[in-house]
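User: I'll paste a sequence; please echo it back and then give the predicted structure.

Assistant: Echoing your sequence first, then the prediction.
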Amino acid sequence: MAGLIRREDIAAVRERAKIEEIVGQHVTLRSAGVGSMKGLCPFHDERTPSFHVRPQLGLWHCFGCDEGGDVISFVQKIDHLPFTDAVEHLAARVGVQLRYEDDGGPRRPREEPGRRQRLIEAHRVAAEFYATQLLSEEAKTGREFLAERGFDRAAAEHFGVGYAPRGWDNLARHLRGKHFTEAELTASGLLSQGNRGSYDRFRGRLVWPIRDLAGDVVGFGARKLYEDDPGPKYLNTPETTIYKKSQVLYGIDLAKREIGKRKQVVVVEGYTDVMAMHLAGVPTAVATCGTSFGTEHIKIVRRMLGDTAGSTAGLMLASGAALGGEVIFTFDGDEAGQKAALRAFDQDQQFATQTFVAVEPSGVDPCELRQHRGDEAVRGLVSAREPLFEFAIRSVLRQVDLDTVEGRSTGLRVGAPVVARIRDRVLRAGYVRELAGWLGLDEPTVRYAVQQASRAPAQGGGGQQHPPAHDRGRPTSDGAGHPPVDRSDPVARLERQVLEVVIQLPQHALEAGFDDLGADTFVAPAHRAVHDAIRAVGGVRRFGELAGGLAADGAGTQGSEHAAARWAEEVREAAGGPVSMLVTELAVAALPEDRPEALGQYARGVLVALLRMGLTRQIADAKGRLQRMDPADAAYAEAFSELLAVEERRRRLQDVS
């Protein structure tokens, strides 16, 4: 089992096993630009090389069959080995002495008896330690954070909120004093590994215990409190043998009884939102932990609701309840709600028929809503839910002006494909009628548009061959449920070039100011997901920290390369699933610029171009708003001033470039 080998040893194998040498035993590799190599893929028949390797990052990807990964995954696939055997094979080759969680003993075929209980016990002790620390003088900032959001000491105790001291190894020393071994501490995920040993993963943060259905603490979520903390705003426990982020929901232990009674699950976005919901009288609220709501979460919720999804699931009764139970997603803004609602179409639609969306129009989250308007407003948010399909259709219609003939025509073009994706025929027919009413068009016209949309070829469907890298004219899917990316679109093409630079050349991206880009800079959902993963690990600044640490340890000229490889691996881990594969693809893609001395200028050029394109989009939107406004309106002058400010920003950017 992969969990038996210490994480730092696996990382050492990745660093020392030169991927170009391992792959080179099976593939003839040739140069494909600065820092890139390519050859014929060993996993499918092809005549034109589409298999790329990026030695500096230790990653490979085939643009023909869409396989990819690191040196370990290559050995797994080429030699048909399980993960642990592949690591052991490479370790023997490069001279890494592997250590196991049983302190170097012989490898066991299954987890050591009692190991899970020891890890759970370690988390229980850690939770008690953090809760006690919340009462300390140092934790004053944390208590103020909670108080400002309407949570008193009783609330903190009810939800088990704690505080992780700022010291380097406070928790580690406490656990060692409780006779936990180094192997157990490493496997728990409570400590992180550095070049100088292990240290507390959470430091100077508020900490929420994440429990499983049985009520056992299996992980933690931690919120940054201090400005000098270089880490991400939220930091979770890494994947361990007892903590899988795709299989846990924060608050499920407190909500499970009420979920069973009410046949309702309310999904919110943060730990404080769960607290606010419960305290406001919505005790069925839960939250995901560092990942989006996915298939494994659906399985948990179905079990909690009694697996009542069926032909009548989601039918609204006169009482306001939904037959067969309901799942309500809350979002603090229309944009987030629309993205999540549309993503649900690509998941299990038997589940979707009993799914609702509740959005607070003012853009505040449930925690802020409770602060500003009280418990009743939180309960009202849940009561005002909309069926998922209705919300998804109305979301795309809100992007067009339905007061004009042209706008209604556009509304039909964007609304019909959404209706066409509803698999249930009865529901689809019902929303054909609804869409006709919302657009003010006759039903046969709308039905015909939906039929035409349903016949359009699905992009990125299962079984389709992925186009090679050089075929830039075809839309491609990232495989994560996002709409396909059309690489003939100049905006999508520029976004991809920027992400290729960032993943492959983080040092240049750091110098060019990539971390200054806003969260909404990337338009293509797949590219935005990669950007989210980069931001989640601390941005490109995280690469700078790694490089600085390695330089301080005397890594020499290879320090930057090792830092880039470690940073790319962190981004892949943060992305998870299919988006991780997209990160790998971006990491090995050949750059248009192949002169080493010109890479810095190229990196700055594409970043400035992306910023300029975003400002141009803002200017177009602002001018469109002005055209629809009355010049005599008081708001007209304010809108005009905003337009001038954005135009000035773009002008300064052009002068710099």
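The CA atoms of residues 17 and 507 lie 23 Å apart. The two ends are 53 Å apart (CA to CA).
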